[in-house]
Structures are given as C-alpha cells and as structure tokens.
Amino acid sequence: MSNPLRDRAVIVGVGHTPSSRHMGKSPMRFTLEACTQAIEDAGIDRSEIDGIVTVGTLNELEVLQHLGLEGVTYHAGPLGGGVGGGVAANAALAVAAGLCDVALAFVTMEAPRPGITYNYMGHNGARGDDAFTLPYGDGVFMQHFAPWYQRRRQIDGVTDEQIGAYVVAMRENASRNPNAVWREPITMDDYLGSRYVADPLRLLDCDMPVDVCGAVIITTPERAKDLKQKPVYVSAMTTGQRPRPSGIFWHDYDEMPYKWAAKRLWSNAGVGPEDMDFAMLYDGFSPLVLYCLQDFGFVPKGMGGEFLGAGEHLATGSLPLNPHGGNNSEGRSWGFGHVCEAVLQLQGRAGERQLADVHTTMIGGGGVVNSSALVLHD
Amino acid sequence: MAELPLPVRDDLNRAYWDGAQAEKLVILRCPACQAYTHPPRAMCTTCWHEELVPTEVSGRGTLYSWSVMHSKGNPGFEDRLPYAVLIVELAEQKDLRVIGNLVGGQPSDLAIGTPMQVVFEKVNEDITLPQWRIAAADGGVR
Ligand SMILES: [Zn+2]
Q1: pLDDT digit string (tens) for A289-342?
Q2: Residue A317 in domain
Q3: What is the number of CB-based contacts under 8 A between chain A and chain B?
Q4: Which among A79, A67, A77, A60 has a CA at the least distance from the CA of A38?
Q5: Which domains occur in chain B, in start order?
Q6: Confidence (pTM)
Q7: Measured between beta carbons, which residues in chain B are less than 8 angstroms from residue A243?
Q8: What phi, psi does A291 have (nearest 5°)?
Q9: Which of A125, A157, A209, A337 is deepest in the core (most CB within 10 A)?
Q10: Is residue B95 less than 8 Å (CB to CB) from chain A?
Q11: Contact residues, chain A, for B70 at CB < 8 Å
C-alpha cells in the first residue's frame, strides 16, 4: 500500500537572497525579501498562508506580522531538529496531513559579527557533558565532526584528493550560481594547500558563514493547479535519530543518524536511491557527504571516497551532487540552499547550471546528531 | 587570554572529578547489570537502575579517534595550538569513551586502536584532569 502522505504536498515557489559575508541590511529585512519573493514566485495571495516553519534565531512571529498575515494553523520548527531540509520536510508533512493548506518554510542565517567566537558551544561553561570536553579545548563544533572524518580516512582509506575532488567540483558548480558566496574556481592544489582548522578538516572543507535567507511555499497538489510554477511533488519526508545527544560522545562514528532517516524514506517514496537523477546532500563540512552517500544507500558502507575520487558526483557522473555548489561553496544556509536548488532543477529553472533531463531527486543529511530527508519529483 | 573553563561539579559528575583529584579514573557503573555509563547519566540506560555506583577503572584503553585543533576558539588554548583531542575507548566496555589531550608523543604517532594509558594533570587545588599517554607494549607508559 502506498504511504498516505506520498505526493500530497507540492513545492510551488522559491525565494533566495544572495549569500553574503555581510549583506549590509538586517536579517529581518533580507528574510522578508526572500519570503515575499517566494510568495510572488508561487503566484499565491499572502492571505492564503496558514502555516509557517523555520529554524534559527529570527522570531518568525515577527515575520508573520511584517508579512501582514492574520494567523496560522500550523507553526513549527524543523523535522528532526536540525537543518534546512528538515524545515521543508516538516512544512510538507503538515500540508500532506491537512494541518495547513499553504505553508511558508524558510531559513535565515546570519554571518557572525565581531566579538562572537563562531561555533563555540561552551558559553554556558563546563557543565553537563561540556564538563568533559571544554577543559580539553574541545568546544568548537567542527571538533565534534573532525574525528568522525578521521575514521573515514583511517578505516576506509579516504584521501585528501577524494574530498578535494568534491570541493573543487562545488566551486565549479558555484561559479554558475549567482547567489553563491564563493564563485571563483579553485584547483586541487588550492584544496591541498588549504590550512587545517581541525586536522583532518581543512578550511576549504567548512562552509562559509553568511547572511542568507531561503524560502519556499508548499501547498496541496489541488491548490497548485492554477499557480504560476510547475509543482514539485514531495513523495516522502523522514527524520531519524539515535540515542546520543552529542557528536563527540556518539556511540558509533561509522554511521550517522542519516541511516535512520533512510529507513522509511525509500519505501514511503516508492523509489530507491538508484532512481535519483541527482542528489542534494548536506555538506556543512564537505566529508559529511561520505556519510550521506553510504547511509542513504547510494554506495556500500565505506565507499564514499571512491565515489568522489571517480568523479561520480560531477554533472557528467552517475549521481550529480549539489549543482548549486552545496553549502560548501554557496554558503552556509544549513542546507536550505539545497531545498531551493532541488526545486529549481526539477522545474527546469536552474539557469546555466541546469542538469539535463532530471525528474527525481532527494535532499538528505543533518548536523551530525540530527537528520532529515525528502524525496522530490516533477 | 581567556580563562580555561574548568568542570563545575554537580551530583552526576562529582565522583568523576573527586576521583581524578585522587588520581583515579572513576566511572559510574550499574550494580544490577554491570554496565558503565559516561558521561554520567541519571540512571542506567540499559536497565533503568537508578543508583549507579562510582567505580574505579583500569585507566587503560585504546584510541577510537582523534583530531588536531589548529584554530583559535577554545578559551585557555590560544597558546597551545596545535593540540590533539583524543577519544579513548576504555578497556572495560565497548562504546565507553572519554575525551582527553595527548601527553607526550606526537599526533603522528597516533592510529585507531593505539593502546592508551591515563595520566593525571593537576590544574589547581580543586581540579585534576585525566589525560592520556600512548601505552608501551609491555603495559607501561613510554
Ligand atoms: Zn543497569
């Protein structure tokens, strides 16, 4: 029996600001730009919006006020607690389940301002689990992923050149993305010469923190019939979790909770990884794609490095990845850029980076200890 | 230079830090099912027993993974870059792991499975940090 939520929500509008080291305007202002752009792109009246889903520091009730909305019947955060894919997934879930008819889903990221130690997790002091990490200088988020990547190198034999092939390709993709923060192509030598931030992670493995907002409008297939854009169907939305609260004290560095988001993804969608024309994999740190590839079933466990080394992630490969350049080169949107790009590609609106003849994709990943995934088709 | 954040004792971790002060590695253990738990938890996650017992362990383990920090961002470590952060799996139980820094030796000496031995670094009168050395093949410390 087909899953009752399958193809019961469609994405019909996209808004996306440029990714900028410093936008020169307030997060509320550029958030409203992306949200109004998405609403206008869909061609729907704002009075019909009755759902709002987001994650981050911006107060979404203030966004509702600015947009002049009366109120909503669905107000929530991301499915799976984490990143942009989870925001879109939860909005799609709400529409498919009949909790709202037209949802606005968005993610706003703010580049760090002077005086803030970026990604330091220890501002509450060495309490709780942090009592066992901060005294050892282990309080910056990338340090809670770097030792995972270390195991992929030590156990699977993943090389600098394999990850470098991914990063170089993302820059190449981003050079065709007007919203990307890094648009200058780089060479393998540039990657190999990139300094370590938390060895084995290099600077060029980390997404650039930026000011950015991405937004999409999600509604029912029925409502989409007389809207402006070709609807993109959400055929499954999932999340998965395992019982550990932190990346560093995770019990198994060889498998991410992505594996648990994958458990129902394919059966609920009625397709498999082999049916994907391309994939949108989370790459806040570039080696995260190794886990996306293996845990969502695109490659056997441990084979992600060989996949990248063989160029299978390129537009010419067996599974093109992140044609917008990923978070790695478009800029840190917590994966919401992946959502916008998936929709544009399936609608044939991706401009000079448009992949040929693509009809089905998936968005998957999360921030080490959380996960979400969606399958989309035209 | 920003100050090193030192552990704040609470009901769950007091036995660990008191033990370290006495140069012992002390981990909470379930008297019912014998499972160890770290970081400390309020009850046994295996059998839900609520009175876990602080238990001294051998101080031996193997390296599960590691990274070498090259960037600023951790208060108290600005002058110590680069430094290794180790994830050590204790000999007593699979998946029982602690974090520490490498004492002696170089990061280039490290590999998954490297035998490790706890050592104790006294920071002040209240806090001693368990740290890790590469263990010699004969069980001693090199
Ligand atoms: Zn027990």
Answers
A1: 999 999 999 999 999 999 999 999 999 999 999 999 999 999 999 999 999 999
A2: yes
A3: 118
A4: A67
A5: 11-57 (no CATH), 58-142 (2.40.50)
A6: 0.96
A7: 45
A8: -75, -40
A9: A337
A10: yes
A11: 195-199
